[in-house]
Amino acid sequence: PTRRSSDLFAIAGIAEAGALLMDSKFLAETQPKEERKPLVLQKALMSANPLAFLELFRHGPRLSLLAVLRMLNFACDKSNLMQVAEIHRNQVLGLTLQQNAMYMVSAFSVAAPGFALAGPLLRKFGTSACLRVGLCLRTVESLITSNSASLSIFKAVLPLGLTGAAASTSVSAMLQDEATRMKLNRSEEHTSE
Predict the structure, then answer these.
(1) Residues in CB range of 131: below 8 A, 6 or more apart
(2) Residue 54 DSSP code
(3) Distances from the Cα of 90 to the Cα of 105, 109, 115, 159, angstroms
(4) Disulfide engineering: 56 pairs with which of 67, 130, 146, 149, CB 3.0-4.6 Å?
(5) Per-residue pLDDT of the chain (193 residues; tens, 9 = 90+)
(6) In degrees rounded to 5, what are phi and psi of residue 145?
(7) Strand ranges (DSSP E) for 4-130?
(8) 161: Cβ–Cβ under 8 A, 6 or more apart, which residues?
(9) What b/e readout covers 67-92, taking b as 16+ CB neighbours within 10 angstroms?
(10) For 101, phi and psi rounded to 5 degrees?
């Protein structure tokens, strides 16, 4: 198994290198030359600071709370936990490859409309309501699936995940709004001085 996986990684690396060559040789730059900015290494390295997110915690308790909420939301997001959930489901249910594939198709067919509905739900009910409902339903879904030993129960709770995208989008929207508001408040202070 180790030799096979290392071969797959080597093939993936070669494919990535091929994509890089194709991109650099065959795809023309679309940004006009007068709009291009030169790369300043020091500025680029400073903007790539992995600890830059800590700046969010210096601008008030609401922004700090939303940043923590977004990190927790991201850590518990289904897309990040998909492999762990799949392993859990397969160990508990002993699914065949075909059964697992059919379940995954069902899960994705429920998740896709959730992303399409996220915007309209946010506009109709607001970010706080969508966040609360989404997190409550995600909690119920997680509690049920963690104690389930039947594929039918896993399938029955799939619709609970429909609002998951709205919850994730809510947190992002709230964080963006608060960051924008904080920036506006600071610029108002500077103009009044």
Answers:
(1) 166, 167, 170, 171, 174
(2) G
(3) 15, 20, 26, 20
(4) 67
(5) 456 656 766 777 787 777 777 777 776 767 788 887 877 877 777 677 677 667 767 777 877 777 787 777 777 666 666 777 788 788 888 888 888 888 888 888 888 888 888 888 888 998 888 888 888 888 888 888 888 888 888 889 888 878 777 888 887 888 788 878 777 455 444 444 4
(6) -70, -30
(7) none
(8) 78, 107, 110, 111, 114, 137, 138, 141
(9) bebbeebeebbbeeeeeebeeebeeb
(10) -60, -40
Distance CA 121, CA 88 (A): 31
User: What CA–CA distance (Å, rounded) separates 83 from 103?
Assistant: 14
Q: Distance (Å, rounded) from C-alpha 78 to C-alpha 73?
A: 10
Reference 158, options 118, 120, 103; nearest CA is 103
**Amino acid (1-letter code) at residue 115:** F
